[in-house]
Recover the amino acids of this structure.
């Protein structure tokens, strides 16, 4: 068991989501930074898709009721275990009664707490993710509250975590070549032109060339962007069609919406573009009030990024297994 | 990339479903949306159902989402060459012969009028019909479930009599109750979640239509026939 000691609103249990049910109207949900969840789970010896805690409102703290392996990934800033300052992107072992505390991260948005054995909430439609809109999945279909106690699964990982931790080079650093840094304070987000791109004048220039701000009306469902409104040259009545996280829709007001993890499954607004899947985790780490720019990409580039991420994840898995095996051999 | 694809598929060209080419666009790098040309009708949807069956069997497909005369195909990874994917989808569409899905018939008891029918007066004004006539026209029609989406278990129903057509609201109702029987353009349906809703409510249905713990969570499925049965009319 772990017990939630302190939490803000909208912190939830999430795994890699519940794809496969969009055709009956069920959003996939899942972590806003799925890469952080995959790496966190590998570090603590879980399957990549085990359920973790997504913390997006801070401060947050939890108490372990038994010896537990854990890792905090995703956001920047250093977690505390009792009074001891720890590193993010590093697996540790907590003793029974110890409290893990997360402060507000300096620049990023979401931290993930992975636990050896995973969070053992019931799997609903193949996933442990919380569906906030549908009020099911995760911890009773709702955000975490102070005093909640959540079961932890049995770890199948027999290898110990070294006493001083097992760390990984975080994706933003290891994949620096693949994920370009901020440009003039704006996050570059790669996207492909969408179905109604041609309806926007000058090859969508007003969309691609301006810096957008993530408005306060943004959440796990979608980010509403504020900036100079963009208008299509003609208004069209679209039939409802399936959509995906990353789709960038332009409602009548002209300020784009990027659908995120809790994306609706259907939509009808004109789609000017769609963020490539591999850049969604960076968007998931972008805070309300921060700025971003869309960069026109290609399928070929998206594929290259996808493959680089897959290589990195595989590397982390292989290396962490190797280290643990070596430690066990020495023990 | 997509600009080239659009070149041979002009936007919003209205052509009969049997002839024109489908339009294909991207959402991100691994999802492709095929939109049937022509009218919003059962013939086009039956071809979408056929296309769905074909595409679902492709080994590189992660998930498909049939919509209203369109299909979103989500692939397992970004393709090397998107033009190949576009060509495959177009070929599958060209070869898709309309099928009929043998669905079940669902009877939905409706309380027409009353406190939830907040948009009934406006619909009467728009249609120049009495509330009694609007209700009669709505419940006498037989509807088909074209697709599910938007909210867990929500079925988009086709078959609305055009006399009671009502466009979606430009400003949605902020908190429409789950169970409201609504009209959105030429579609009708039963709201599955309480929340913002741009459709127009004319009644209320109690029926439980989604259960996440069931092996078949959604009661409705594409191809089903739906009839609204007046349980109570309160005008």
């Amino acid at each position: 068991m772990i017990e939630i000691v302190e939490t803000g609103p909208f912190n939830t249990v999430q795994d890699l989501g519940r794809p496969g049910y969009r055709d009956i109207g069920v959003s996939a949900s899942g972590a806003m930074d799925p890469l952080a969840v995959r790496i966190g789970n590998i570090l603590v010896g879980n399957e990549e898709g085990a359920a973790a805690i997504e913390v997006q409102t801070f401060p947050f703290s939890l108490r372990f009721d038994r010896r537990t392996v854990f890792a905090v990934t995703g956001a920047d800033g250093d977690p505390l275990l009792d009074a001891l300052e720890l590193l993010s992107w590093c697996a540790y072992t907590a003793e029974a009664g110890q409290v893990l505390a997360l402060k507000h991260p300096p620049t990023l948005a979401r931290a993930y707490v992975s636990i050896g054995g995973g969070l053992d909430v019931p799997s609903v439609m193949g996933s442990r993710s919380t569906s906030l809109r549908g009020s099911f999945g995760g911890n009773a279909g709702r955000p975490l509250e102070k005093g909640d106690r959540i079961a932890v699964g049995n770890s199948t990982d027999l290898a110990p975590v070294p006493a001083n931790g097992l760390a990984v080079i975080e994706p933003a650093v290891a994949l620096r070549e693949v994920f370009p840094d901020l440009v003039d304070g704006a996050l570059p987000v790669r996207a492909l032109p969408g179905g109604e791109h041609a309806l926007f004048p000058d090859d969508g220039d007003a969309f691609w060339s301006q810096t957008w701000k993530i408005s306060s009306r943004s959440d796990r469902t979608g980010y509403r962007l504020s900036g100079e409104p963009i208008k299509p040259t003609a208004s069209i009545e679209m039939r409802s069609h399936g959509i995906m996280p990353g789709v960038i829709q332009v409602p009548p007001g002209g300020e784009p919406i990027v659908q995120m993890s809790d994306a609706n499954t259907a939509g009808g607004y004109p789609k000017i573009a769609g963020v490539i899947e591999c850049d969604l985790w960076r968007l998931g780490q972008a805070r309300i009030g921060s700025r971003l720019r869309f960069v026109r990409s290609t399928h070929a580039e998206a594929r290259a990024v996808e493959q680089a991420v897959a290589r990195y994840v595989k590397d982390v898995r292989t290396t962490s297994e190797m280290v643990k095996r070596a430690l066990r051999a020495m023990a | 990339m997509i600009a080239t694809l659009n070149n041979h598929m002009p936007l919003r060209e209205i052509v009969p479903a049997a002839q024109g080419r489908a339009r294909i666009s991207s959402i991100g790098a691994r999802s492709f949306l095929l939109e049937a040309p022509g009218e919003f009708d059962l013939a086009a949807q039956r071809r979408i159902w056929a296309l769905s069956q074909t595409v679902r069997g492709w080994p590189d497909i992660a998930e498909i989402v049939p919509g209203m005369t369109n299909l979103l195909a989500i692939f397992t990874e970004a393709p090397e060459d998107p033009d190949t994917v576009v060509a495959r989808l177009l070929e599958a569409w060209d070869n898709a012969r309309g099928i009929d899905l043998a669905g079940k018939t669902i009877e939905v008891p409706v309380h027409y009028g009353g406190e939830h029918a907040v948009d009934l007066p406006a619909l009467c004004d728009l249609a120049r019909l009495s509330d009694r006539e609007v209700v009669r026209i709505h419940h006498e029609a037989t509807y088909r479930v074209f697709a599910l989406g938007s909210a867990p278990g929500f079925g988009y129903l086709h078959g609305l009599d055009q006399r009671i057509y009502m466009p979606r609201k430009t400003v949605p109702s902020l908190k429409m109750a789950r169970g409201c029987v609504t009209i959105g353009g030429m579609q009708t349906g039963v709201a599955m979640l309480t929340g913002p809703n741009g459709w127009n409510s004319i009644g209320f249905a109690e029926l439980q239509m989604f259960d996440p713990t069931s092996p078949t969570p959604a009661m409705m499925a594409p191809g089903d026939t739906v009839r609204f049965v007046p349980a109570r009319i309160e005008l």
About this structure: Chain B touches chain A through 55 residues (CB under 8 Å). Confidence is low (pLDDT under 50) at residues 1-18 of chain B. Residues 105-234 of chain B form a domain with the Cyclophilin fold (CATH 2.40.100.10).
